[in-house]
Amino acid sequence: MPRTRKAILGALGATFCATALVGTAVAAPAQDDNGVADMSAADIASEARDAFNGARSLHVTMEMQGSGLDRDDPASLDISADRSANCVGTIDFAAGGGSLEIIRHGDDVWVKPDEVWLRDNLPSGQSDDAQELAGTYLRGTAQDDGLDDLAKVCSLDELSGSIEDSTTADNLQKGSETTVNGTPVVQVTGQHDGQDVTVSVATRGTPYPVQATASGEGEETTANFAFDEPVPDRTPAPGETVPWGG
């Protein structure tokens, strides 16, 4: 399959490398000050990384904008994943590149693409099947060619690894205290791979990263995070599925 999955991972990586700065937390009442607002930028980033890596589950929504985006690049996604390799999510592609839904339970993976995505991504000899397959769940495994990268997008361990891949950013600076998505945060800014990055870290309760933004080279990505929420339990019925690659 094409580079679509790697584009998704790259876009996520840009915002998660911001968490080589930080992330997004769920607002909770009566939580105590966690002390991160009094720390240095480097220590805030470290606390946020530790909190992210210790989370049992993650819900991330991401939007990406830019004149250079093509049909393989994600314009938006909404993914929920946990440590047991359970995941549900949707991905919409830029420049009219279609959309798909993804579900994962362990090694079992289902994707439900629309007709536009199928026409762009099916091998040339199968392109005539796009209309028939649209709206159907294609079932395979996390090891299948073409599903393996999507399975990684849908893995909390892989997403956490994106942070471990980049544990520092240049010119880390501590920003102001503010509120993001209803959560009190302190912001940390820096540069990574030519992009300006801002991470907002919760100052109450667990110092989760609440939001990460990255901008530069004509692109802008915003990711919002929530942690330790249950992944929706969704499994396609057998009559709704066909084999991946079959």
Summarize the model shown.
The chain is built from six helices and twelve strands. The protein has 246 residues and is of the alpha+beta class. The two termini are 14 Å apart.
Model description:
The protein is α+β, with helices and mostly antiparallel strands. The chain has one domain (4-241): outer membrane lipoprotein receptor (LolB), chain A (Clam). 22% of the residues lie in helices and 38% in strands. The protein contains six helices and twelve strands. Strands 7-8-9-10-11-1-2-3-4-5-6-12 form a twelve-stranded mixed sheet. The protein starts with a helix and ends with a strand. The relative contact order is 0.26. Residues 1-5 and 20-30 have low confidence and may be disordered. This is Lipoprotein. Residues 1-27 form the signal peptide. Residues 212-246 are annotated as: Disordered. Keywords: Signal.
Structural topology:
Elements: H1 4-16, H2 41-54, E1 57-66, E2 74-82, E3 86-93, E4 99-105, E5 108-113, H3 115-121, H4 130-133, E6 137-141, H5 148-153, H6 156-164, E7 170-180, E8 183-192, E9 195-202, E10 209-216, E11 219-227, E12 241-243
Parallel strand pairs: 6-12
Antiparallel strand pairs: 1-2, 1-11, 2-3, 3-4, 4-5, 5-6, 7-8, 8-9, 9-10, 10-11
Organism: Streptomyces synnematoformans
Region (Disordered): 212-246
Protein name: Lipoprotein
Keywords summarizing the entry:
22% helix; outer membrane lipoprotein receptor (LolB), chain A; twelve-stranded mixed β-sheet; 246 residues; Lipoprotein; disordered N terminus; globular; alpha+beta; signal
